[in-house]
Design a protein that fits this description.
The chain has one domain: Creatine Kinase, Chain A, domain 2, CATH 3.30.590. 48% of the residues are buried. The chain is α+β, with helices and mostly antiparallel strands. It contains 14 helices and 11 strands. 43% of the residues lie in helices and 13% in strands. A hairpin with a 2-residue loop joins strand 6 and strand 7. The strands form 3 sheets. Strands 1, 2, 3, 4, 5, 8 and 9 form a 7-stranded antiparallel beta sheet that branches.
């Protein structure tokens, strides 16, 4: 049986000349026809929703087309879009919350936390047979989510400063009362009762505010991954989607065989592993879920690939995911590429890089993206380094 996948991506809206985050999501949405796009809590971000796909190639093509539409709509208004956990140039204000009753209530309830929600994520949906199975599968996939966060890490800068983290978005996100590891539950009834307790306690107002790293969708028969930064490169989204689908397929087969081992309910190490992934990205150690010991990120991810090979082969993804993973390890995390660009030039050049990668420009020598010519008055050279070989495209390798 084919296990379908889909993705939701969040994008920052930036001014193309200054590179700064701007509250102009409505301007962008007004230029996009048809369904598939929506508002977020802050007017500085928009969300896109893919169609449902059987293959990584289909998902990749869909997401790439969506990014081209967003880029075209933004550029006609002096704007650009960035898929990254954070953008380097931003400032916090309490005046940019979207004019929606639910969002306004969240802003009133969470105050500074809502004001600082200047972050974007990539979310992957994978088909699941039923809600009970989704809840049980969470326990099996949860230990393997921090490596996926490391792959997506793209947010080292916050309000103009280097945080020292590969994913500062994770640190901001985990301040919400329901963020973090999902926990283990016998079935959907037990999970739903626990979530209703949170709503009844007044900590959150609805199920849309269940921000665990993985959760059963409230509206679709899917398991939803929520731990990742938004990814500048579409190839990274496809890689994460392929690995997450394999984790779900593997979990389903383990449940069918009566294997319920996985996340043992003790989440101290798992929360710590998430912190480690946010701190290190691909450039430092991760916590190996198989041993719960520190290990280099490439070793952890290649071990994960070996573990998931049967599931990847069932979905026809093994060759593609293998190629994408090796390319990701060779080029490094988006956080590292961004840091190198900022060190060589400045924060504005870093924004240019994120815009270029989001648009789909190929990686270039020195891992700096192609840039559009800068308007007069902007600092920087405006030169584009020579391109290197493009990354493998999903579907091209098998």
């Amino acid at each position: 049986m084919t296990v379908h996948i889909g993705a939701e991506e969040e994008f920052h809206v930036v001014d193309v000349e200054s590179g700064r985050l701007v509250p102009r999501a409505d301007t962008l949405l007004g230029r996009l026809e048809g369904p598939g796009f929506s508002r977020e809590l802050q007017q500085t971000a928009v969300e896109s929703n893919s169609r449902v796909h059987a293959t990584l190639d289909g998902l990749f093509t869909d997401l790439s087309a969506t990014r081209r539409r967003l880029d075209a709509a933004a550029s006609s208004s002096g704007l650009a879009v960035v898929a990254a956990g954070t953008v380097p140039l931003a400032h916090v204000t309490s005046h940019d919350v979207t004019a929606d009753s639910r969002f306004r209530r969240m802003a009133d309830d969470y105050r500074r936390l809502a004001d600082e929600q200047l972050i974007c994520s990539a979310q992957i949906h994978v088909d699941i047979p039923d809600r009970d199975t989704a809840v049980r599968a969470m326990c099996l996939v949860s230990p393997w989510l921090p490596p996926l966060l490391a792959l997506s890490a793209s947010s080292p800068f916050w309000l103009g400063s280097d945080t020292g983290y590969a994913s500062w978005r994770t640190m901001l996100w985990q301040r919400w009362p329901t963020a973090g590891p999902a926990g283990c539950y016998r079935d959907a009834a037990e999970y739903d009762a626990a979530m209703e307790e949170l709503i009844g306690a007044g900590v959150i107002s609805d199920t849309g505010m269940l921000y665990q790293d993985v959760r059963p969708s409230a509206h679709q028969p899917t398991l939803e991954l929520r731990v990742c930064d938004a990814c500048p490169r579409t190839e990274t989204v496809a890689l994460v989607a392929g690995l997450f689908r394999a984790l779900v397929i593997d979990a389903l087969h383990r449940l069918e065989r009566g294997e319920h081992t996985g996340c043992d309910g003790h989440h101290e190490w798992l929360r710590a592993a998430t912190w480690r992934a946010a701190r290190s990205g691909l450039e430092g150690p991760l916590v190996d879920p198989a041993t719960r010991r520190a290990a280099p990120a490439p070793a952890v991810l290649r071990g994960m690939l070996r573990r998931l090979r049967p599931a990847l082969e069932r979905s026809g993804d093994h060759a593609t995911v293998s190629a994408l993973l090796e390319e990701a390890l060779a080029t490094g995390s988006a956080a590292q590429r961004l840091r190198r660009t900022v060190e060589r030039e400045d924060l504005l050049a870093g924004v240019d890089l994120l815009v270029a990668e989001t648009r789909g420009d190929p990686l270039t020598s020195g891992t700096v993206g192609h840039r559009r010519p800068r308007p007069a008055g902007r600092r920087g050279t405006g030169r584009s380094p020579a391109p290197v070989h493009p990354a493998p495209v999903p579907g091209a390798t098998g």
